[in-house]
Amino acid sequence: MEEPRSSHGHRSRDAAAYGSRPTIHPLVSDVEMRGPWTAHIEAMDQTLADRDPGAAARAWRTAYSSALCNPGWLGLLTVARAALRLSAIPGLTQEAIARAGETCWIALFRARQQRSLNGALSAAAVFDVLGDRAAFEQSMRVVEALANRTGDADGADRARLFIERLADKTRVAEQAP
User: Fold this and answer.
1) Are 12 and 6 in contact (CB under 8 A)?
2) Is 6 among the domain residues?
3) What is the pLDDT of residue 15?
4) Is the separation of the CB atoms in 104 and 142 below 8 Å?
5) Per-residue pLDDT reduced to its tens digit, 126-177
6) 83 domain-assigned
């Protein structure tokens, strides 16, 4: 079973345990927000705990539909992170990772449209967990453009801090045996 890897090639902690919760970069707070998708994600988590992959996948698809109907980006990122938990199921790994990436792209586009620096940073963090370097770099370009366009000095500082922490993470990962 192939597991998600960070952009630095290390095994993601998200798929370390069947049904574990995804780990997002510590600079970006937990983006999960209650909404119409919440009950479906809770059902997915329960069916993961019960080791019922078919029911878990169905619950995820319903959560995805609910988040897609909502105009914001938060629900989509919550659902993308939930897909990472599905990737721990043998036979669903590749599909779950693909769905997480696709869902994260939609969230990034919505965050850009809504001029949400937090949304773009959160999407970048998910892309990093997925190990999708190209998507991560594109999302960071969106972050930079949003910070410049909005003139948000605090946002620009958060973006720089986020990049610095990722660079630190890369240095630590490269030094690991």
Assistant:
1) yes
2) no
3) 35
4) no
5) 999 999 989 998 998 998 899 888 777 787 787 778 777 776 676 666 666 6
6) yes
What phi and psi values does residue 11 have, to the nearest 5 degrees? -60, 130
Among candidate residues 96, 30, 39, the one with its CA nearest the CA of residue 66: 39
From the list 102, 100, 109, the residue with the least C-alpha distance to 78 is 100
Confidence band for 26, pLDDT divided at 50, 70 and 90: very low
Domain span at 34? 13-175
Establish if 8 belongs to a structural domain. Answer: no
Whether 160 and 121 have beta carbons less than 8 Å apart is answered as: no
In this prediction the pTM is 0.76
- Condensed to tens digits (0 to 9), the pLDDT of residues 76-132 reads 999 999 999 999 998 899 999 999 999 999 999 999 999 999 899 999 999 999 999
61-83 b/e with 16+ CB inside 10 Å = b? ebbbebbeeeebbbbbbbbbbbb
**Cβ(76)–Cβ(67) under 8 Å?**
yes
Separation of alpha carbons 108 and 118, rounded Å: 10
Domain count, the chain: 1
Alpha carbon of 2 to those of 5, 77, 100, 144: distances in Å? 9, 22, 15, 32
What CATH number is attached to the domain comprising 83?
1.25.40
Asked if the structure places residue 4 within a domain, the reply is no
